[in-house]
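Go through this chain.

——
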Amino acid sequence: MISRSAWQVTVTATELLRFGHSWAAVHAIHAARPSPAHPTGRCLLTLTPKAYAGTGVQAVHPGR
C-alpha cells in the first residue's frame, strides 16, 4: 500500500488542477517537489502557505 506522503508526491499536474489549484500554483508545486537535481525538494516561499497543504511541498511564509 502506498503511503499518504508518497501519494501526495505522485499527484500529476492535471490532478492538481482538478483539485482546484491554479495553473501558477501547479507550476510552483512541481518546481518545489524532489527531483534528481534537488533530492529533498525546495522550499516554496509564498504569502499563502496554507494553500499548498497536502501537496507534498514545504511552503513557507517569508515573514515566519
The chain has a mean pLDDT of 83. The first strand starts at residue 43 and ends at 45. The chain is about 35% helix and 10% strand. The radius of gyration is 12 Å.
